[in-house]
Amino acid sequence: MFFRAFGIPTTVQVTFWLTCLLLGRGQLMGPHKFNFLIWTVVVFVSILVHELGHAFAMRRYRLDPEIQLYFLGGLTAAHGLHRLTRPQRIFVSAAGPLAGFVLGGIALLVALYAPLPDVQPDSPPTHIALEYGLGSLIWVNIGWGAINLLPILPLDGGHILEDILGPKRIKATAAISITIAVTLAVLALRTSFFGFGGPWTAMIFGLAAFQSYRRYQAAADAVSHARPAPKAPKPDEAPMSPAHQSQLARAKEALADDRYDEAATLAELVLSEQPVRAARIEALHVVGWAHLLQGRVEQAERVLKAIHRETEPDLAFLGALLFHREELDKAREVFEKARAAGDDRKEIVGPLIQILIGQGEIARAAAIALDVVDALSDEDARQMATIAFEHEAYRWAARLRQEVFTRTEDPEDAYAAARALALQGDLAGALSLLRRAAAAGYSDAARVWSDKALEALRSDEAGEIEALFPRSPITPPGKS
């Protein structure tokens, strides 16, 4: 199931509905079976609101979020040219529970102060459904929200603790997470709480404890399995086994889907089996990326040392590590070297563009973005065009917008390109793009006649523009 929530791509997997069934199965066995449908709607809306909280916080930092709802919850991943600071990551992590608290708080106020009917066992189904729906909204958003803020990985509270303590203290974060998760799992086996039921709650916290243990193990010895296999006759010339190829492919897929812990676990399992050299190198890079993309720079550096013992590291990984260490000049040198060799992967181009923007080389950043525009999302290309426009690199802004218009035929892109060319002084090109905007459906004549960026064009081509975008009769002739 796919849809857009406030313009944000949202995917709902089948396993999400399975979770609703598992958690709400008691309603199917009760006297009011229609409450199961209410429960499913409440869980869907509440988790979506939670993920939208993360997504809107990401948008605040000019990232492009995507939402997935799946078994046991949801995930909001972000794409864009910007890297978040630790305080920004804390804000993004906290925004999900806070959004749920707002929704739950509204439901609580309605339950406390609205003139609701008094519900009895023989009350009409609508009254029973209303009471159950409000109660579920309050519990799911406030109760679950509070649980989600516990300092347990991979809950939001665990990520907040991780960012507060910093990448050098990931072992402490994982140890705290393990202690709390195991304690709650044991308590869950002895009693029923949190509105779930003992075994179910124990399983959830048990899984969290296991994931936290994996994080602790990786932090304690990120490359403990990276030692070369015992020497044999030309072992490194042997081909990679199909099993390792498959497992590393799954690890890379998990890495691409932002499932970093899963990616690291799969790669570490390959390393533990004394693979051939090619498999060791691939697995080490996956582990390194998994650490780096979660801000664990120290662990990533240890993996880099292990890679150096095998071969030269992938320039994208080396540059990204330098970028995270804020050694920007060195990172730029590495990325430029990679591009000179024809490597235009997003892991190379994205941070290089960020560095160039930070160093004020806007035109060069826009030129690189134009070189790889086919690999950029429409929003990333527009974002780069906006930055170029704001820094008066008008020709690059226009070319980027034209490329996006070619893909989308969105008249706004043609209009934005026309504005940039007009300011560049290319009035013929600007007029041509205005024609294309009009042909694509652009019709905001008032904007055309008042836009300062088009002032020179209106002076030279007033008749042509009048034919494309007739002025309102109430607009005095010549007024702009």
Average pLDDT, to the nearest integer? 82
Uncertain parts: 221-236
Largest sheet: 4 strands, mixed
Taking all Cα atoms into account, the compactness measure Rg is 28 Å
Terminal residue distance: 48 Å
Find the count of extended strands (DSSP E, 2+ residues).
4
Instruction: Sum up the overall morphology in one term.
Output: flat
Percentage of β-strand residues: under 5%
Strand order of the largest sheet: 1-2-3-4
Helix content: 55-70%
What structural class do helix, strand and pairing data support? Answer: mainly alpha
| Number of discrete helical segments | 22
> How would you spell out the order of helices and strands?
EEHHEEHHHHHHHHHHHHHHHHHHHH
Reconstruct the topology from this structure.
Layout: E1 2-5, E2 8-12, H1 14-28, H2 34-60, E3 64-70, E4 73-79, H3 86-113, H4 125-148, H5 156-165, H6 170-190, H7 198-220, H8 242-256, H9 260-271, H10 277-293, H11 297-310, H12 315-324, H13 328-340, H14 346-358, H15 362-371, H16 378-390, H17 394-408, H18 411-424, H19 427-439, H20 445-450, H21 455-460, H22 462-468
Parallel strand pairs: 2-3
Antiparallel strand pairs: 1-2, 3-4
Helix pairs in contact: 1-2, 2-3, 2-4, 3-4, 3-5, 5-6, 6-7, 8-9, 8-10, 9-10, 10-11, 10-12, 12-13, 13-14, 14-15, 15-16, 15-17, 16-17, 17-18, 18-19
